[in-house]
Structure formats: structure tokens, C-alpha cells
């Protein structure tokens, strides 16, 4: 089967609008039909006998689903709980930390905006400081990045917060080495893995982060509203919950406090093992490899068309299925207008992002995407940005 045929076969498994070139899987993900069917089956189970489902069965059902997700990410089931998204899970952590005046949370200038708002809010209330260490583009080597970042650690550094894969720049950061150094220094590490599960292999035991939050509804293709929060055992007693409900008393401990949040639809959590099974059935390591190759190709073509250097070295160490390429437009209104034209005129769903003064297009390549769709993006950018230098 050709690569295009394989992608088209997978496309038939998804509910996506066939009239849209969907190159933005990274924002909210997309759920395969059989996984979505299972999700709706669980919703019907809930509605068939709500008292039995939520009052008697939910703990055992969640425990079983949680165990499968934990095995998938290399963690113990008792160290992981379901949350609706990574941002929610990291809010649990930010609001649980005993911060005070002078404490510092060290981060990068590549972090997700919603989490920047979270930490700024918490620091404003506690008197702590949220310290952004700049990582200039283009990046060079992992060793240089780690050394530069670590130079900003001070005796006031209470915790390190950073993304495993950044949202705006799609970089895979060398978090394992930073976590190793932090553990030696006695500094808490908090990792935003929103884009990781399903896009790159994840082994939380080997990674060494103290706290990790990952989305299942993005690259793992689970239904919307499925994510997890992982906390190493020695930190669990300090982790509270955003909602104090019956779980606080009925099942003491990290899992109990955070698993029972009152009446809510848990179907997305329960269908997540089906997303894991779907990817296993479709040889997802091969899918990821094909998507990475396409991501590299489209990055190189966009950079060549506008005679702009890439912001990251080639290879799976720096990016996987999601990649950014710089564009010759200023960030701001002009970039927003370009993104709108790409959708309105060409029916291409793709985001434009920015880092400092550089506008970039962030391309997500999922198993259902074809090389022909990436051709349409490159051609559309050339049409919408005429007059810019093109390398030959």
C-alpha cells in the first residue's frame, strides 16, 4: 500500500470534514470512528442507569481504564489520575504548591499561554516570581539548551516548569536531562506533556519528572476531555484537588481526592483504552515515522520557498509529527489575516504562531494526512504571500 493510500484509509476512520485540509490536529485532536462509537456507548451506559453507573460502578471502571493508561505511559496506576485536560491537571499542581515571597518558578519563553496565565495568577497571590528564561531560535544542540537553561537556576528556584513538546514552536525539549539535574539539586520538576501521548513514546519512570500532565485527546486520539495527571508518590500528599467532593473522605489519598469530582460524564476517560488499542491495531510507530518524514519535507519546502532558515535541526530529536516553519510576515494582525485567508479561500485549517518577532506556520501531520494536502498548503502560502524571495 502506498503512503497516500495508507493515509486515505486512515482518513476514512475519522469523522473529519472531507472538504477541509485538516493540518491542525495539535490543537484539539481528532477521534477515530470506532473510538467515538465506544465513547457514545459509555454515555448511553451512564444514562441507562445513572445511579448504578456513577454510584456503584464508576470507581472500578475508572480504576481499570486508569491502569491501562498508566501502563501505556510507563507509570504505576496509583500515581496517575484522569483530568479533563493538561491545563486542568497543572492547575491542581500550581494551586497546591506552598509558594511564598521570593520563591521562583523557572520556565522558558516557549510555554503555552494558558499555563503562563495560571502561574502568573498563582505568583501574584503568593508573592512568588515566574521567571522566563529565553531560548532563542534557531535552537542548536540539546547540550547548549540545557546549559543555558540551568544557568538561570538560583537558590530561590522552588520548581522548574517546562513543556516536553512546546505548543507555539513544536520543539521537543530535553526534559529528561533537566529533570535529572533538578533531582540532584532537590528542585521540583513539573512537565507539561500536552502534545506528547501518541506523538512520541513516553516512559514516565525513565523520564524522571516529579509531576507530568498529558492530553489523551490530542495525539492519542481519545475523545475530547481525556487527559492525565501523574505525581510521584513522595509528592502526592501535598497535592490537593480543584474540587473538594466526596472522594476526599470516601477514598483518602491522591487518587481518591482527584478521581471523584461529583456528577460528571466520565465516558471520555473510559474510552481512552480504546484509543490506545486503535493505534496499536494500525501500527502507529510506522504511522508516526511516515508523518515525521512528511513534516520534515513540508518544513524544508516552506523554508526554501521563502528563503528562511529552519528554527530547529532536522531529525526526531527536536520535532515529531508537529513542526513549525518561519514565514515572511510580521506577527500580529497580518499573520491573523493570513491564517483566516488560508481557511476562507483554500479550506486549509492550520494555525499561525509566533515567537518573539517571528511568525510561523505550525503544521500537524497526522496519519490521515497526505503529501498532496501538504502540497496544497505550500502552494496556498505561495499564492497568499506573492513577491517574497523564493530559493531555487
From TrEMBL:
Membrane-spanning residues where? none
- PANTHER family for the chain: HERCYNYLCYSTEINE SULFOXIDE LYASE, L-CYSTEINE DESULFHYDRASE
Q: What is the lineage of its organism?
A: Bacteria, Pseudomonadati, Thermomicrobiota, Thermomicrobia, Thermomicrobiales
List the molecular function annotations (GO) for this entry. Answer: cysteine desulfurase activity
Aminotransferase class V domain residues:
53-302
What keywords are annotated for this sequence in UniProt? Pyridoxal phosphate, Transferase
Q: Which Pfam families match?
A: Aminotran_5
Q: What is this protein called?
A: Cysteine desulfurase
Amino acid at each position: 500500500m502506498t503512503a497516500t493510500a495508507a493515509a486515505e484509509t486512515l482518513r476514512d476512520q475519522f469523522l473529519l470534514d472531507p472538504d477541509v485540509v485538516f493540518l491542525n490536529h495539535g490543537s484539539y485532536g481528532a477521534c477515530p470512528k470506532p473510538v467515538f462509537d465506544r465513547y457514545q456507548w459509555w454515555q448511553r451506559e451512564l444514562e441507562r442507569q445513572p445511579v448504578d453507573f456513577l454510584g456503584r460502578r464508576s470507581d472500578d471502571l475508572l480504576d481499570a481504564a486508569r491502569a491501562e493508561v498508566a501502563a501505556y505511559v510507563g507509570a504505576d496506576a496509583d500515581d496517575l489520575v484522569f483530568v479533563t485536560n493538561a491545563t486542568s491537571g497543572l492547575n491542581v499542581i500550581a494551586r497546591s504548591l506552598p509558594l511564598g515571597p521570593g520563591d521562583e518558578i523557572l520556565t522558558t519563553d516557549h510555554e503555552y499561554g494558558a499555563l503562563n496565565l495560571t502561574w502568573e495568577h498563582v505568583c501574584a497571590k503568593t508573592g512568588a516570581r515566574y521567571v522566563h528564561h529565553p531560548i532563542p531560535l534557531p535552537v542548536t544542540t540539546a547540550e547548549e539548551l540545557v546549559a543555558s537553561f540551568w544557568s538561570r537556576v538560583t537558590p530561590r528556584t522552588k520548581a522548574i516548569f517546562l513543556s516536553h513538546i512546546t505548543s507555539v514552536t513544536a520543539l521537543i525539549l530535553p526534559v529528561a536531562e533537566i529533570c535529572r539535574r533538578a533531582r540532584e539539586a532537590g528542585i521540583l520538576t513539573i512537565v507539561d506533556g500536552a502534545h506528547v501521548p501518541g506523538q512520541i513514546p513516553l516512559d514516565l519512570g525513565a523520564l524522571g519528572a516529579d509531576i507530568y500532565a498529558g492530553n489523551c485527546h490530542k495525539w492519542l486520539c481519545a475523545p475530547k476531555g481525556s487527559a492525565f495527571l501523574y505525581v510521584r508518590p513522595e509528592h502526592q500528599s501535598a497535592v490537593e484537588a480543584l474540587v473538594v467532593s466526596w472522594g476526599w473522605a470516601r477514598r483518602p489519598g491522591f487518587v481518591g481526592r482527584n478521581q471523584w469530582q461529583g456528577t460528571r460524564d466520565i465516558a471520555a476517560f473510559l474510552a481512552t483504552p480504546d484509543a490506545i488499542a486503535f493505534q496499536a491495531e494500525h501500527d502507529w510507530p510506522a504511522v508516526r515515522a511516515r508523518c515525521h518524514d512528511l513534516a520534515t519535507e513540508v518544513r524544508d519546502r516552506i523554508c526554501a520557498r521563502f528563503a528562511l532558515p529552519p528554527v530547529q535541526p532536522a531529525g526526531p530529536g527536536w520535532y515529531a509529527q508537529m513542526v513549525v516553519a518561519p514565514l515572511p510576515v510580521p506577527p500580529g494582525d497580518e499573520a491573523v489575516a493570513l491564517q483566516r485567508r488560508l481557511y476562507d479561500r483554500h479550506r486549509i485549517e492550520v494555525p499561525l504562531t509566533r515567537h518573539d518577532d517571528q511568525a510561523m506556520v505550525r503544521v500537524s501531520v497526522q496519519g490521515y494526512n497526505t503529501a498532496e494536502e501538504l502540497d496544497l498548503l505550500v502552494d496556498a502560502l505561495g499564492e497568499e504571500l506573492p513577491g517574497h524571495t523564493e530559493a531555487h
